[in-house]
Amino acid sequence: MKISILTLFPEMFTGFVETSIIKKAILKEIIEIEVVDMRSFTEDKHNRVDDYPYGGGAGLVLMCQPVVDAIKATRTEDSLVVMMTPQGKTLKQSVSYDLAKEKHIILLCGHYEGFDERIRSYVDMELSIGDYVLTGGEVASMVVADSVIRLVDGVITQESHEDDSFSNGLLEYPHYTRPREYEGMEVPDVLVSGHHENVRNYRLKESLRKTQKMRPELIESRDLTPLEIKLLAEINSEE
Ligand code: 6GU
């Protein structure tokens, strides 16, 4: 998969592409990341990419010319052009799974007050990462790229994301590693028992417990299996 990031601040992505799983995915040639500086497309004699809004008001608006020319120079027939804005559809794990199937994603990052409305005619979808406002789309685009890249085949093992929070509609169960006891806190016996079915049931139960506590709306909207109903009843009698 190729991900192109269109931005006015390419230097923000250096650490992102040079670290950990993302770096490995690039070295393994599973992922290609292209960072495109939209300012290099400006035809303005003072290199401007933004201007005052018609009608007045605070802030600057990104101009059509450099942004649209950058999109046109980056896209092919296989590209999905995604505009990063707080007005977009909210990123969810299910959206990341869909994006992970694409050949080429272009993440368009705005800054300042936003994009000239006409730029939206060159965009396939608008994406937000949540209901709060950032200074620009760059950090949001890294969130999108990170969550998509880890789902692309070969980047991490399949099992490590099948158990992710949200992948099965629940929050992930708790994890433990050595030592067996730390400052009086012990690893639950079932996890060292070697009994695979008991471990599976324990993890499902703790997933349900955590989800009910932190995100009860995920339980309310869920089609519970008979086992999940039984485990939730146990949890409620324990608490
Ligand atoms: Cl994609 N951009 C900005 N500027 N703020 C955001 C966002 C995006 N998603 C949430 N807040």
Classify the helix fraction into a percent range.
25-40%
* N-end to C-end Cα span: 47 Å
Number of domains: 2
Number of DSSP strands?
A: 10
Give the rounded overall mean pLDDT.
96
H and E string: EHHEEEHEHEEEHHEEHHH
CATH architecture name of the largest domain: 3-Layer(aba) Sandwich
Low-pLDDT segments:
none
Named once each, the bound ligands are: 6-chloroguanine
| Global morphology | elongated
Radius of gyration: 23 Å
Number of helices: 9
Largest sheet features: 5 strands, parallel
Strand ordering within the main sheet: 2-1-6-5-8
CATH level-4 homologous superfamily of the largest domain: SPOUT methyltransferase, trefoil knot domain
- Structural class of the helix and strand makeup? alpha/beta
> What CATH first level of the largest domain would be assigned?
Alpha Beta
GO molecular function: tRNA (guanine(37)-N1)-methyltransferase activity
Enzyme class: transferase
Family: Belongs to the RNA methyltransferase TrmD family.
Keywords: Cytoplasm, Methyltransferase, S-adenosyl-L-methionine, Transferase, tRNA processing
